[in-house]
Amino acid sequence: MEGLLLAAGAGRRMGIPKALVTDDAGSWLLRGVATLRDGGCSRVTVVLGAEADRARPLVDGLDVALVVADDWAEGMGASLRAGLRSLGGSTDDGVVVSLVDLPDLVPEVVARVIDAADAGPAALARASYDGEVGHPVLLGRDHWAGVIESAVGDQGARAYLAPRDVTLVECADLASGRDVDSR
Questions:
Q1: What distance lies between CA 149 and its chain's CA centroid?
Q2: How confident is the model at residue 35 (pLDDT cuts 50, 70, 90)?
Q3: What confidence score (pLDDT) does residue 81 get?
């Protein structure tokens, strides 16, 4: 299973790109990579954008693929498109998409989403927290082209997923699922 960590935004409300944020537990970027890996993703791709040159050294030596979304300012959709396009040569049936601004996300959430999904290329699953949809989202390979086509602005895959049968995986017992937009 591929892992895709979206970390391209400028973090305007945060005052710093979220790929550069650290807290008492360390770097959000490094934590996001480790969470995907430890949750069951054999390969991880990180999508950078705002201040990519400052964020890149944080993951040097971690055996991750790096992609820079040149149009990152458009929103999450641009990051998602860039990340999925970079996976064109992958032989995996799916990708787990996560966000860098989920500092309380734990590997067990990623593993639960992977385990709950049909492992094939048609799989669609996502974490939910007390019934509210959230991240990570598992996208089977059959959906990548459709998500790339529909991902615009800050909506990511929302419009693509809305009319489809997506397996919701309750994870509120493991994490809050809340993204953090300000200090």
A1: 17
A2: very high
A3: 97
Query: What percent of the chain is helix, strand and coil (3-state, nearest 5)?
Result: 35, 25, 40
* 142 touches 122 (CB < 8 A): yes
**DSSP element (H, E) containing 31:** helix 28-39
Residues 6+ apart with CB under 8 A from 30: 58, 59, 62
Among 113, 108, 147, CA closest to 128: 113
Which residue type does 47 have? V
Instruction: List the 132-140 sheet strands across, edge first.
Output: 65-68, 43-48, 2-7, 94-99, 132-140, 124-129, 167-170
Q: Amino acid letter at 54?
A: R
Write the pLDDT tens digit of every residue in 169-182.
999 999 999 877 65
| pLDDT above 70: residue 91 | yes
Mean pLDDT, residues 20-32 taken together: 92
> Which residue segments constitute the domains of the chain, with CATH numbers given?
2-170 (3.90.550.10)
Q: Are 109 and 32 in contact, with CB atoms under 8 Å apart? A: no
Three-state SS at 82: helix
Q: What is the pLDDT of residue 41?
A: 97
Is the pLDDT at 159 greater than 90? The verdict is yes
pLDDT score of 2: 96
Element (H, E) at 80: helix 76-86
